[in-house]
Amino acid sequence: MPEQTNHSPLHSTVSSEASSPSSRSRINNRRSSSNNSLESIHLYTTPQTQRKHSGGEGTDSANSLTLQSIATARSSLSSQSIQSSSLQSVSHNSADESTPTWKTSVRRIVSVLNLVPKEKTPQEKEEEQKLREQGMFLTRPAICRQPLKSVSRFCISLSGCGFLGSYHFGAVNCFMKNGQHVISRLDRVSGASAGSLVASILLLVPEKLDPALKVLFDLGEELIHLNFGALTPGYYLNERLIKIVDDFLPQDISRAQGKLYISVTRKKERTNRLISHFSSREHLLQCLMASCYIPMYSMGYGAEPPHIDGDACIDGGYTNNLPDFDDIRTITISPFSGHAEISPRDEANFFDWKMTVSNQIMNVNLQNIVRGAQALFPPSHAVLQSYYDQGYKDTLKFLIKHDIVQRPRGTEV
C-alpha cells in the first residue's frame, strides 16, 4: 500500500518556513544557543555523562567541548565572585554602621566607584598648600609677592561675615599680642559689613576689642532665643547695631581719615564704593550701618536703607566683600576658607571647586555653606568662641610662617 503523505496546513507551513533562508538562519541560531547551553551543562556532569553527551569515549570533539565549557564557566564564575565579594564587603561595612538608608546607599556608591580620596602624606599636603598659595597670589596685586619682612606699610582687610566676626576678633587680638611687626607699620584698615565694625574698633579704640567681643556674644544669644532670629517680626537688628556702635565710637574720629576704608554698595547702580573720608562722627556711623545693611534682614520688609551723600547704600559684601589694594601690602582675613591669606584650611574634597563671590575667592564645600548660614543665624556661644580661637590660631600660624612674630615689648619669638 503506498505511503500516505500528510498535507495538513500545519505541515505545509512548517515546510515552507524551513525552506526559506531567513528561517534557516533562525534555526542555526537556535542550534548555537542550545550548544552553548550544553557547554555550560558539561561543567557540572561526571566524565561518564560527558562521554555520553559527546557520543563516544575519548573523542576529540568531546575533549574540545569539555575544555571550552570549563573555560567559559570559569570566566563567568570569576566575574561573579568579584562582584559578590565587592558587594559583600560594602554590605558588611554598611551593616556595621547604624546609619539611615540614604547614607548607606551613598556609601555603597562611593565605595564601589572608589571616590574616597586617599590619605595624603605630609609631603603631599605641603606641596598642595604651596600650589594653593601660588594660585592665590596669581589673582592678587604684584605687591603681595614681596616678603613681609621687607614691607614698610601694611593694610589689614576684614571680610564681611555677619556673626562670624568673632573670627576677626581672634585674628586682630593675635596681631595685637604677637604681630607688632604689622601693627607698628599699619597704615590702613578696610572691611565690609561686620568686618568694617571690627576694623573701626581696631583703628580707633583697640583697647575695647574684648568688650566688643562680649557684646557680639550677647547679641548672638539674644537672636538664638527669638523664633526666627533677626527675621522675627518686630525685631530690627539695625537699630540694635546703631546703639552698640555708637557706644564704642570715640568722639574724635580724626585717626580714621584716610586710614579706615569702608565698603558699601550703591543700591541703585549696584556698584561698590570705598569710603575713607568722613565729614563727622555721625557720617562715619551711617557708613558703618550702610555697610552692614542687608535688605529685609536688617530692618524688615519695605524699610529704607541708609543714605550716604544722597545715595541709598546697602551691605558692601554684595559688591566687594574683601577689599584689596594695589598700592599697599594687604593682609586679607576671612572666616570662609578660600584665597584669603588668613582663613580656615579645610581638607581638600574630591572636587576642588572654587567660586568668586563679591571679589572674594572661596572654596565650594559643605563647611563654607554651614558658615554662611551661621553668619546670619548665629550659633551657640561655644561655637562663636571656637571661631575666635580659630582666628587667633590661623593668624599665629601666618606670623610664624613669615617669621614676623614680634611681641609688644620687642621680644621676637
UniProtKB/TrEMBL annotation:
Active-site residues annotated for this sequence: S193 (nucleophile), D315 (proton acceptor)
Single GO cellular component term: membrane
Pfam families: Patatin
Keyword Lipid metabolism: yes
DGA/G (motif): residue ranges: 315-317
Compositionally biased intervals (Low complexity): 12-37
Domain named PNPLA: residues: 156-328
Motif (GXGXXG): 160-165
Database matches in PROSITE patterns: PNPLA (PS51635)
Keywords: Hydrolase, Lipid degradation, Lipid metabolism
Motif (GXSXG): 191-195
Biased composition (Polar residues): 1-11
GO molecular function: triacylglycerol lipase activity
Residue span of region Disordered: 1-62
UniProt-listed GO biological process terms: lipid homeostasis; triglyceride catabolic process
UniProt-listed InterPro entries: Acyl_Trfase/lysoPLipase (IPR016035), PLPL (IPR033562), PNPLA_dom (IPR002641)
PANTHER family: CALCIUM-INDEPENDENT PHOSPHOLIPASE A2 IPLA2 -RELATED (PTHR12406), PNPLA DOMAIN-CONTAINING PROTEIN (PTHR12406:SF38)
Protein name: PNPLA domain-containing protein
Origin species: Ancylostoma ceylanicum
